Amino acid sequence: MPVTTPPFDPPTAHDVQVVTAQLGRPARDVIGIAARCVCGNPTVVSTKPRLGNGTPFPTLYYLCHPAATAAVSTLEANQVMPELAALLEDADTAEQYRHAHQAYLDDRESIEHVEEIAGISAGGMPTRVKCLHALVGHALAAGPGVNPIGDLALERADWSPSRCECRAYDEDADAGVGVGGGES
């Protein structure tokens, strides 16, 4: 699965159309696709640090793939976050997580400085586990070994970036070959 950190290639109109279908709402201020399904559809979208309406938006890496989002939601519902948070008591894991936080900030700052969110990353980094969706999105975008909590959540999820579970997002879309031949 291709991963991407800034600078991003501009998203295509088709990318934005697929992300809109995945989210069930218009995609806002998309600046790139940071991770893709093996079939090519977006898995993680990258959003401008300041939205077009002026709102600061700290979540640079936004998990948009419906099957991935559902799998991560299941982890959260099954109380996996406290288990993963407990791992931060280990000094080495905590240090890796601080490095992940800094990598996230560096990626976002390379795009745009937004004073209101300076020093704020996502998902609870650098000291808490608050949103597995954000942490898995970062892990998928940055690749293995950057975000230890995101990597562990991804390992525990009932979804894999190496298996397509996409559906047809429109009549012209290449739906991939996932569950049910791309239909879900």
- List the uncertain runs: 173-184
Helical content band: 25-40%
Strand order of the main beta sheet, please? 1-2-3
Shape: globular
- Count all strands and give the number: 3
Average pLDDT works out at 91
Described by strand count, sense and barrel closure, the largest sheet is:
3 strands, antiparallel
Please work out how many helical segments DSSP would assign: 6
Strand content: 5-15%
Order of helices and strands: HEEEHHHHH
Our measurement of the CA-to-CA distance between the termini, rounded to an integer number of angstroms, reads: 21 Å
Please tell me how large the radius of gyration is.
16 Å
Structural class: mainly alpha
